[in-house]
Each structure stands twice: as structure tokens, then as C-alpha cells.
């Protein structure tokens, strides 16, 4: 499978990243193991998690996804060299366990390494900006961890063009590691926050881009077409944000391309992202092997210029 360089990090990834926020939530441990095996056996190699996954579930404290990945790696040691582990820090775990202060970054990295049962994190990401901590302090902490061999590269998530540009400028001025990747919200529906200044910055600075919610929390699979469908999954409550005339227009365009390709709408939506200039690899998750098969098919789906133009127009 053809890999793509992840910015200037030196890392190289297949065109799809597995989102593991569902591990320990809507995918139990046994299912998660099967999904990981299928993903890696298909030649895909990047796993995205975070220290906060899945704190939102009653009874969870965060780190459940990392723990499952760690158990899988321990049970399959030969597969460690076949995968790149991406995780994050910054979301709220409670008092003194949030933000991007050097103290919390160091502590969170140690906790993540322990849960993941690895000696090094391939990509460590600032999950959300922290106005209370200067970029110089955050990047300085990352430099220390990189020199110690605990992380290989760093990235940012949920940063605006202004925030990312400021962090890049500080890194250049002070000789600190720069954010080599960005994880923005971006898909056929959610285009406004990335298209424009942020996308231009990433392309100009050669930043690797791994968008989250590649399927708009499942909306772009086409299984939510009326309010009656909201109960189909734990994420169904989000669908009210998408079920509107523009959302239905996007689904209609996906249906048309999918029918022509003999594919599913979600596969077409991911193929559009994979083909999009300024995107390295979208992040998508699965809770069943059938869904995983669809993700794998999307990687191999080639869209024509006309099909991409139709999807562009429908989602504009």
C-alpha cells in the first residue's frame, strides 16, 4: 500500500488512520482486538487515540482506549513495528489534569506510555489550544520528551490558522520542535473551519493533516436520513446538526457516485477526503468488522475528476 509522508516528521502513513475513540465505549475489548487485527492485516498502519478516550462514558476515567491498544500490542508484539501510535494531551481530566503545561504534558505522556505498554509514542498531539500556557513552554516540554526518546514527533488538534501559525513562529524563533501535523474537523459536510486560511497554511508549511470525524460522526454513511434514524447508534444525537437541506444534498450526491462505483456512501465520502489536496489521511472509526471492511475499501476507491467535482459542488 502506498504511504504518504506525514508532514516533515519523518513518519509515513497509509491514507487512512484508525480512530480508536470507540474502544472501550461502543466497541468492547474483544471487538477492538479484531478491528485492530483487520486494520493492520490490510496494510494500514496508523492508530489515533487520546488520554481522554473515553472519559465521557459513565464509570470511565479516560485512558480506556489506550489501555485496550496496549493490551493488543502486548498480545501481538510482532505488530508493534507495523503500527504508528498517535495520542493526545490537553482535554479536561479534572483538577490539575488538563491543558498544555509542561508538568501535565510530562505526566500525561508517562501515563500514556504505561497504558499503551510502549517505550515511545510516534506522534504526540496537543488536543486543544491552552491560552493559559505559552507555546514556548509547551514546545519546550515536547523538546525534552523528544530528546528523552519518549515521543518522535508532535502535532496539534483543533487549532485555528492563527493559533497554528503562532506556534510555528515560536518554534522557528526559539529553535524548538514544531507541530508537524494538524488534526482538524473536516469532511464533506464540515468544511468551513479548515478550507481557507488553515488549509492554505498547512499546504504552505508542509504540515501533515489527519482530519477527524471523516464520516461526520456517521452521517455520511447515509444511515441517518430522518429523525427516526437518530436512535441507530450512540452518536445519533449529533445527527440533528447535519439533517438539513445541505446535508440531504450531500447525501444525494454521495448516493449517485456510490451507485456508479458499486460502493457505499461512506466509502465515497472517505475517498473524497483521501483525494483532497491538503489532506494526508482522514481518521475514521469502526465498531464492527463489516464497517472495517468498508474503511479498507475506501482506501482503494478511485474517484474521477467529474465525481470529485460533483461532491465539491454539493458540499460547497
TrEMBL record:
GO terms for molecular function: oxidoreductase activity. Transmembrane segments: none annotated. Residues 15-314 form the NADP-dependent oxidoreductase domain. Keywords: Oxidoreductase. InterPro entries: AKR, AKR_Detox_Biosynth, NAD(P)_OxRdtase_dom_sf, NADP_OxRdtase_dom. GO terms for cellular component: cytosol. This is Putative oxidoreductase. It comes from Azorhizobium caulinodans (strain ATCC 43989 / DSM 5975 / JCM 20966 / LMG 6465 / NBRC 14845 / NCIMB 13405 / ORS 571). The lineage of its organism: Bacteria, Pseudomonadati, Pseudomonadota, Alphaproteobacteria, Hyphomicrobiales.
Amino acid at each position: 500500500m502506498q504511504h504518504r509522508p506525514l508532514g516533515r516528521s519523518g513518519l509515513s502513513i497509509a491514507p487512512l488512520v484508525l480512530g480508536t475513540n470507540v474502544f472501550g465505549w461502543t466497541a468492547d475489548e474483544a471487538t477492538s482486538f479484531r478491528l485492530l487485527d483487520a486494520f493492520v492485516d490490510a496494510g494500514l498502519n496508523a492508530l489515533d487515540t487520546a488520554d481522554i478516550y473515553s472519559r465521557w462514558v459513565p464509570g470511565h476515567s479516560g485512558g480506556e482506549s489506550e489501555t485496550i491498544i496496549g493490551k493488543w500490542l502486548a498480545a501481538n508484539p510482532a505488530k508493534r513495528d507495523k503500527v504508528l501510535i498517535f495520542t493526545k494531551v490537553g482535554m479536561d481530566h479534572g483538577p490539575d489534569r488538563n491543558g498544555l503545561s509542561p508538568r501535565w504534558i510530562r505526566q500525561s505522556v508517562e501515563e500514556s506510555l504505561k497504558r499503551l505498554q510502549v517505550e515511545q509514542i510516534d506522534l504526540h498531539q496537543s488536543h486543544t489550544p491552552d491560552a493559559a500556557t505559552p507555546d514556548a513552554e509547551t514546545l519546550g516540554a515536547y523538546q525534552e520528551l523528544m530528546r528523552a526518546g519518549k515521543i518522535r514527533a508532535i502535532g496539534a488538534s483543533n487549532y485555528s490558522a492563527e493559533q497554528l501559525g503562532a506556534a510555528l513562529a515560536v518554534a522557528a524563533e526559539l529553535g524548538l520542535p514544531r507541530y508537524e501535523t494538524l488534526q482538524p474537523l473536516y469532511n464533506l459536510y464540515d468544511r468551513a473551519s479548515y478550507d481557507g486560511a488553515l488549509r492554505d497554511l498547512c499546504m504552505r508549511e508542509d504540515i501533515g493533516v489527519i482530519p477527524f470525524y471523516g464520516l461526520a460522526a456517521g452521517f455520511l454513511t447515509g444511515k441517518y436520513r430522518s429523525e427516526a434514524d437518530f436512535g441507530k447508534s450512540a452518536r445519533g444525537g449529533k445527527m440533528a446538526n447535519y439533517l438539513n437541506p445541505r446535508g440531504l444534498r450531500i447525501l444525494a450526491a454521495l448516493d449517485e457516485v456510490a451507485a456508479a462505483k458499486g460502493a457505499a456512501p461512506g466509502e465515497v465520502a472517505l475517498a473524497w477526503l483521501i483525494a483532497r489536496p491538503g489532506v494526508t489521511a482522514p481518521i475514521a472509526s469502526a465498531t464492527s468488522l463489516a464497517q472495517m471492511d468498508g474503511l479498507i475499501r475506501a482506501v482503494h476507491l478511485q474517484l474521477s475528476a467529474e465525481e470529485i467535482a460533483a461532491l465539491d459542488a454539493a458540499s460547497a
